[in-house]
Amino acid sequence: MIEFKDIAQKVTSGERITTEDARFLFDYPNVAEIGLLADHVRRRLHPEDRVTYNIGRNINYTNVCWVKCDFCAFYRPPGSSEGWTIPKAQIFEKIEELVAVGGDVERANEILMQGGLNPKLRIDYYEDLFSSIRDRFPQVHQHCLSATEILYIAHISKLSLEDCIRRLRDAGLDSIPGAGAEILSDEVRDVIGFRKDRTHEWLEVHRVAHQLGMHTTATMMYGHVETIDHRVEHLDLVRDLQDESGGLTAFIAWNFQPDSTDLAADENRWGGKKATGYDYLRTIAIARCFLDNVHSFQASWVTQGPKVAQISLKYGVNDFGSTMMEENVVSAAGTSHTGEMTLQEMERLIRDAGYDPVRRNTRYDILN
Ligand code: SF4
Which of 64, 71, 72 to probe ligand 1 with, by most ligand atoms within 8 A of CB? Predict the structure, then answer.
């Protein structure tokens, strides 16, 4: 029989915990004790009393998407009068605003540029966009797209996945966010977004990117139709991927944001209960104990709010993420926290939680 003290012994001695241990922790009543274990792991990996953050901007270049995921309030289907693709000049203006805040250090400002699966945009669109941003803004790190978008770009451009990622990389794409992972279980994906890529495809995009020398992140969107077993399965797949290819820089989790989504409107599929901050702290702490091979854990202040994000720093999180100028995707699903935080506010929140705020780049190198 599994007991908490045995898991604690494993975590504090640096031994890996099992999927059964993780399941046990999801049922364990004392979340604060799990937090202590997660903090132990965090302190082993990040012994300093500091919390990193990144100056970054979200740019949603198109909201046109044919996939119609039931948990998504952001997309508009092809042909909709509310669909848009923003012109390159406007993307440049947004980047100029970012650089005005983040300064001129090479690759120090992050753009997280993502959009829908727009049938009009093929590889040449992305090559042109990434290369012109790279030429014009050497201060900018392009952390863009998602596995879902990349698979589709490869498909409509008739390219192999490897050729597609190589061409995107050569044009200026620096790294790939973990978006689109949701829950890595086809059983769950069949219910919340059956047109979306399969679990093995998400993993394959990240595997190939790592083989091509790129870094990526892993995410998890929980709190919808999945079970605890699905969450653990997700964490297990992420850990295996990292053991194999080692290219994940960070893990970020957030809960399903239900407003204006088809999934929330369907009582048979979703029970109507948004996951709590308490569930977030438990989930992130268990993930921190389980993912012993992922270096950084990012807070999701945009979904959890600044207070829970501050508390998460005691539950295994060592990074406050990005300033996220102009976040549109979860904001479209009604998160009550605005998708933007000033640099001063972010530093204040970190300080108030008892840590020194330190700026980093997307590769998690510390910047002065
Ligand atoms: S989550 Fe992404 S793939 Fe799914 S509908 Fe929204 S934009 Fe499209």
Answer: 72
